[in-house]
Amino acid sequence: MKLMRKTALVMAAVPAIVFITPVGSASAHGYVSSPASRSAQCARGDVSVDLCGQAKYEPQSAEGPKGLKNCSGANGAFAPLDNDGLPWKVTNTGQTLSLTWTFTARHATRDYEYFIGGTRVGYVAGNNQQPTNPTTHTINLGGFSGRQKLYAIWNIGDTVNAFYSCIDLNIGGGGGTTPPPTTTTTPPPTTTTSSTTTPPPAGGTWAANTSYATGSTVTYGGSTYRCRQAHTSLTGWEPPNAAALWEKV
Amino acid sequence: MRRLVIAAAVLALAGCGGEAVVPEGQGAHGHGASSAAPPVPAASARFNDADVMFVQMMVDHLQLGISLSQVGLAKATTQEAKDLAGAIDVTQREELTMLKSWLKLWGKPEGDGANLHAAHGGQPLLDDKVINETKDKSGTEFDQLFLNLMTGHQGAGVEMALTEKKDGMNPETTAYAERVVNTRQGQISQMLKIIGGA
């Protein structure tokens, strides 16, 4: 009875919500940030953009219908996330694993599900509430061991869709001890390609992904700039584009 | 009443899809000449609804990011996170000044960002309440929460900027959107490495 009344209330609210919700976009997005899911590894640059595609820019948008067992949500732009052959980093873990989700928008949540193969090893109810900050779950890996792919699924409460994240695991034997370093699946770091691909700009010594202290000077495009505030440089924060960080001298 | 306002805003935004041009003689000039601040890059006068919507939404988005970065600057325990918070704070203030000047030039209001967000896909990650709640945390718990929220917030900024790159027409605004994509992606990369360990 109580439930009925609640449902009636929700139903009454629906017309107004529908009215202001654009068609076809859930725009409640999320992914597992820790341990680094495949999406997070794309955004971190651990796996290069050539391999990752759109997941580098929108790790939160591997969205698809509920009920899938994949990493992309069967969303074509994110297909590389389904490719087990890419150089994904593998997280060593015992039987207990804590995971943290990062969201770009809050949205009513039906629940979270975690699968290894066809086995559901974790379930957390969402009660159609907005996610908490932060959202961290501790799950038991159900006796699985060795190299496994964990599907982490965020089922949205008020759309038909879910968001998919995959985490590559090497699950150690009992007791959560760190397994021997037999993780030959982890290839030599490819980070060098991603973090140093930005060439130094012509005629300057400013470079992206470099830590600059307040007061240090660089040249860029023939001019000299002094760092106004300590930061790690980024593409888009070139001195002429970031007067808040660089003062022309 | 509030719904009516939202509805009106949505209709206005969804309305024409046309473009507008600021009349001659009202061109923007960086008004930095008289102050110590560097001149604000002006936007050209030809723009469409997507440009206006993006800039209006970004004004609200930047302000929330600035509020959160200030908490991060005050409370983060690692220098790396503090530096990033400080850099986000100052660069977004600079962007905010620029975007407000563009709206003024275009004769458009700053608008109600929260309603705009609601109309375009639901609850933004951040609001004043969420930001205030972070102040109750401390130590590594604060760091994790701060970095996670900022990562998500900047990720939402990337989504908005990608939409602008697709639908906008004003060259300065689409160029700014490109910088938003790059700088936020770079920040997200830095933060994810702190969150998950490099």
TrEMBL record, chain A:
GO molecular function ontology, one term from the record: hydrolase activity, hydrolyzing O-glycosyl compounds
SUPFAM superfamilies: Carbohydrate binding domain, E set domains
Pfam families from the UniProt entry: CBM_5_12 (PF02839), LPMO_10 (PF03067)
Alphabetized CDD domains for the sequence: ChiA1_BD, LPMO_AA10
Biased composition (Pro residues): 178-190
GO biological process: carbohydrate metabolic process
UniProt keyword terms in alphabetical order: Hydrolase, Signal
InterPro entries xrefs: CBM5/12 (IPR003610), CBM_sf_5/12 (IPR036573), Cellulose/chitin-bd_N (IPR004302), GlcNAc_Chitin_IntDeg (IPR051024), Ig_E-set (IPR014756)
SMART domains noted in UniProt: ChtBD3
Domain (Chitin-binding type-3) ranges: 203-249
Region entry Disordered, spans: 174-205
Any one GO CC term of the record: extracellular region
Signal peptide residues on this chain, from the entry's feature table: 1-28
Protein name stated in the entry: Chitin-binding protein
Organism: Lentzea albidocapillata subsp. violacea
UniProtKB/TrEMBL annotation, chain B:
InterPro entries listed in its UniProt record: DUF305_CopM-like, Ferritin-like
Residues in coiled coil: none
Residue ranges occupied by any DUF305 domain in the UniProt entry: 51-193
Stored PANTHER family: SLL0788 PROTEIN (PTHR36933)
Name of the protein in question: Uncharacterized conserved protein, DUF305 family
Source species of the chain: Lentzea albidocapillata subsp. violacea
